[in-house]
Structure formats: structure tokens, C-alpha cells
């Protein structure tokens, strides 16, 4: 079993903001896998389903970003899962808009949601998919991440959500190295097409 957690803030005022790219990627996974993420459990919206014989729990913590670990930690303890069975998808201001970084483990960096999860888990040894949202040096970080991206930025991000979903499912299948090779590129995915599961993808950023 895997838990795939997309991070964000609940409420209409935060919908489609940069800090909610984890939620938006979960929406892609939900639609693709036919898993409805509507059940309230673990202080999160959750949905269970199967993918290639593996049980999945998709979850959107409803604790607000800074307390994401309360929800994720509760689910991990309930199912008695080791850290490597958790995949977290979240925004990263240190990556340009539309870039991805897939990692098997690592630090929380400056991301408060990841700090919360790492603290509640007592470990950073879990896979993560970071979605680049860029940054604006002229704005405070909190102001920037809680704003909605421009139309052009959002078009890049929509493609990135598809690729982030692909990466998460690659990890579920045990293909971490392949996911990193496909998605940890230096060029933005502006002109790339989303991978269709089962296809052999071309080189993608």
C-alpha cells in the first residue's frame, strides 16, 4: 500500500494558488484512476483505490499547510506503513515554473508543509515530487505562494501536474530511477505532451 499526499490549503480562497499545486496534482490522479477523494479521514479528504495490484490512499490534508504532518502522520500510523510507502507532492519555489524534481528522500528545505510532515514522521526518508512554481524576488514568499499564477504559468503547471502524476505512479510501480531519469530535466516542459500510462515516453523535461 502507498499513501500519496498532495499538499495545499483548504477553502475556495486558496483554490488554484501556487501553494496548492499538490492538491491540483491529486485531482489529476483522482480523475485518471477513478478514485474519488471526498471521504473525510485523518483530518484530510481521502480516497482509496487500486493501481496495478497496489492499494492506494490519495489524500489532501485539510489542516492548512503548516500542519500537514498531523494528517499524513495519522494515516501512516493507522496503516503502520514505513516511510518509503509515502509519496508527497508539493510546490517548490526553488524550481522554475513547470520543472519537476523527483527524490527518494531529502530535507524539508524551506517548505513548512514538508517540515511538518518530517517532524511528525521523525524522518525525511520518503519519496517526494516537487513541482516548480518559481519565485518573485519583489514579493514576500508568503504573498507569492498564496497568489494565483498567470494564465501562461498555469498552462505550464497543468502539464506539470500530469507529469507529476506520472512520476508518482512510476514510484508506486518501483521505478524511482526511471522516474528521476524521465522528469529531473533542465528544460521546462512547455512543448511536451503528457505521458499516457503504458506508452514508452519520449525524453521529457
What key phrases describe this protein's structure?
6 helices, 7 strands, globular, 205 residues, disordered C terminus, seven-stranded mixed beta sheet, Rossmann fold, single chain, alpha/beta
Verbal overview:
The two termini are 29 Å apart. The protein has helices spanning 21-33, 68-79, 112-121, 141-145, 151-172, 176-183, and strands at 2-6, 39-41, 44-51, 54-61, 86-92, 100-103, 128-132. The protein is built from six helices and seven strands, in the order E-H-E-E-E-H-E-E-H-E-H-H-H. It has a seven-stranded mixed beta sheet with strand order 2-3-4-1-5-7-6, with helices on both faces. Helix content is 34%, strand content 20%. A hairpin with a 2-residue loop joins strand 3 (44-51) and strand 4. The chain has 205 residues and is α/β, with parallel strands linked by helices. It has a single domain (2-183), classed as Rossmann fold.
Quick take:
This protein is of the alpha/beta class and 205 residues long. It has six helices and seven strands. 34% of the residues lie in helices and 20% in strands.
- In the CATH hierarchy, what is the superfamily? Peptidyl-tRNA hydrolase
Distance between the termini: 29 Å
Average pLDDT confidence is 90
Quote the CATH topology.
Rossmann fold
- Residue stretches low in confidence (pLDDT < 50, at least 5 long) are 191-205
Radius of gyration (Å): 15 Å
What structural class do helix, strand and pairing data support?
Answer: alpha/beta
**Sheet having the most strands:** 7 strands, mixed
Domain tally: 1
Count of β-strands = 7
Q: Shape from CA axes? A: globular
Strand content: 15-25%
